[in-house]
Design brief:
The chain is mainly alpha-helical. The protein is built from eight helices and no strands. The longest helix is centred in the last third of the chain and has 25 residues, at 156-180.
């Protein structure tokens, strides 16, 4: 069942990317939420709910809410950013539950990455400097917690969560550059492909890979 959902999510995600580039917004309104619903299904393939699975499912639902805000024309950027901020906080809670504490090297690398992101984006942030700074802080903490859990006790679900968190970071960094620095043609494909990959891995960490 998980394999079928994963394939379906991949196909739906590719159709979403194609619709965006062809500016077929009616199809975007279908494929974007459909892809996230399929990914959400991956997280629900596990057994009984526990704090980790509950946190991941909550993060996926909040991400779906953020997607809806961002796909509107015109996009509701601040509400979407807020929804994703809380999604990252939900993921952070889940990853913190899976670990005994933060790994020093993982935390330092994540923090340095966040500072580089802010330095790169800062000239274009304007009045959005505060929400974007809070958002970057949340995703940095989320990535640090995911890698701390994976380094502490490597397992399939912890490694999937760490890889998913990294892919999510790549997606957000690309989105930030395209929005606040300089847009480029391949941006949307890179943003969405890394986003769906990250969300799928995080969902799998709470679903069939969770043990």
């Amino acid at each position: 069942m998980s394999a079928a959902l994963l394939v379906a999510a991949g196909i739906s995600g590719l159709l979403h990317i194609r619709a965006d580039y062809q500016r077929q917004w009616a199809l975007t309104y279908i494929y974007k939420p459909l892809t996230m619903l399929l990914i959400l299904g991956l997280a629900l393939q596990g057994g009984q709910p526990d704090p980790y699975r509950f946190a991941i499912v909550t993060g996926l639902i909040l991400s779906l809410v953020g997607d809806v805000f961002l796909m509107l024309k015109p996009a509701r950027f601040l509400p979407g950013l807020t929804a994703f901020l809380f999604a990252h906080l939900a993921y952070l809670v889940g990853f913190a539950y899976a670990s005994q504490g933060l790994h020093l090297i993982a935390s330092a690398i994540a923090l340095l990455t966040g500072l580089i992101m802010l330095r790169l984006l800062w000239p274009g942030l304007g009045r959005l400097w505060l929400p974007v700074t809070l958002y970057v802080a949340a995703i940095v903490a989320m990535v640090a917690a995911a890698f701390s859990a994976a380094l502490e006790a490597p397992s399939a679900y912890r490694l999937a969560a760490a890889a998913g968190a990294l892919a999510f970071l790549i997606s957000d960094a690309t989105l930030g550059v395209a929005r606040f620095r300089k847009p480029f043609e391949a941006a949307q494909a890179l943003i969405l492909s890394s986003y769906y990959l990250g969300q799928s891995l995080i969902a799998l960490s709470a679903g069939s890979l969770y043990s």
